Amino acid sequence: MPTYSHSKLETFENCPMRYKLQYIDKVEVEEFVSIEAFMGSLVHETLEKLYQDVRMTRVPTLDELLQYYDGRWDDEWREGIKVVKKAYTADHYRQVGRRCIGDYYAEYHPFDQARTVALEHLVFFPLDDDEHYWIRGIIDRISMNGGVYEIHDYKTSSRLMTQRAADRDRQLALYQIGLERMWKDAKDVQLVWHFLAFGKEIRSTRTREDLERLREDVMGLISRIEGERNFYPRETPLCNWCAYTEYCPAKSPVRVDAATAANRYLGEDGAALVNKFADLSRRKGEVEEEMARIKEALVEYAKKNRVQTIRGDRHKVLVKLYRGYSFPGKDEPARKELERIVREAGLWEKVAVLSPVSLAKLIEGGRIDGDVAEAIKALGEETERPWLKLSNL
Ligand code: SF4
Fold first, then answer.
1. pLDDT tens digits, residue range 225-244?
2. Is the CB of 250 under 6 A from ligand 1?
3. How far does residue 343's CA lie from ligand 1's centre (Å)?
4. How far apart are CA 348 and CA 95, in angstroms?
5. How many whole angstroms separate alpha carbon 339 and alpha carbon 337?
6. Which residue puts its alpha carbon closest to atom 5 of ligand 1?
């Protein structure tokens, strides 16, 4: 039974190729632990220890916690932990971790804001009745405050989430669905992020509709992943933290075998194609056919080598392939049949979109009757759009 976690879904969204290498091909790579992940996991461990002690009615001192953190750092530190940002040393990160713990301690001591129910708790649950879509995750801390359950998540990242992002966050909202299955009285749930590097707490809640929409979105994303055939590499700054660069076609491009077809550019090296393309772009008009042939060859090159970006000497070309369906337009003969099938299948409401332009035309042409027209107009705004055209005298 395939299971998904928030981070697995996020890997696909960030780079489908990495997802394939990591989760489908399960390519074995040398362990890749970034210093950020190392420091984050030790801060999590220290806060877990803190709440374990508090549950046992013992509040540790800050010194004890920092000693614990330093001890774990020394025990676990090993060669090969990657410090990607060259401006900082491992010790800078160690100090950031210490500061996160110190600030948290100062803010929440004596840690009696809520009663801890579970620490590092596994949630594992299906999203649908057929139990096809399974979600797995670990909640840092679950607590109860009166009748309200709180899902706590510790973040040591150097980016502070906005309230808007928290209100749309997927990870903790998914955990809420799991938590509600575990405890039937969990009706009131708060999602709480602790951005430790900023000493800031952010809270958010979800409505039933939000959770239902999330459930559908995640199932849709999983179906997309399971139906995906082209796992393209998506190059971003996150590549610096990727353990699969050695296996990634975007990072170690292979060459196309040989020139074949009528288009003499097909099969040419990607860099040569980009250089030629940049050169011809400056002479547009004279050379459109030539440009079309190079474009075709670039697309062919990108497909064969499974890359999106092709580099030349001084330029690069981004090639994106959008796959989809095209259906008959309004005036084409098959359109009526298409609409009939969609309506009979009860899909019309889902796919039909309100056209504000057509609506405005109906109103302007007086083709909607009195009260309805007034009600619609009340929701809109009368506008005046200027249109100017410049031409030779
Ligand atoms: S190196 Fe970058 S593009 Fe390649 S798999 Fe990793 S994240 Fe994706």
1. 998 887 888 888 999 999 99
2. yes
3. 43
4. 58
5. 5
6. 18
Q: Which of 7, 245, 246, 308 to mutate to test the pocket of ligand 1 (most atoms within 8 A of CB)?
A: 245
Q: Which residues pair with 149 in a beta bridge?
A: 144, 189
Which tokens sit at 141? 């801390």
- Amino acid in position 148: V
User: Lowest mean pLDDT: which of 150-154, 229-233, 246-250, 311-315?
Assistant: 311-315
Same domain (yes/no): 89, 152: yes
Is residue 387, in this structure, part of any structural domain at all? no
Whether 41 and 183 share a structural domain:
yes
Q: Tokens representing 16?
A: 């489908």
> For residues 38 and 49, what is the distance between their CA atoms, to the nearest angstrom?
17
Report d(CA 49, CA 167) in Å as an integer. 29
What pLDDT score was predicted for residue 251?
81
Is the same domain home to 121 and 10? yes
Do 68 and 199 have their domain in common?
yes
139-191 residue pLDDT tens: 999 999 989 999 999 999 989 999 999 999 999 999 999 999 999 899 899 99
Together in a domain, 80 and 191? yes
Query: Which one-letter amino acid corresponds to residue 281?
Result: S
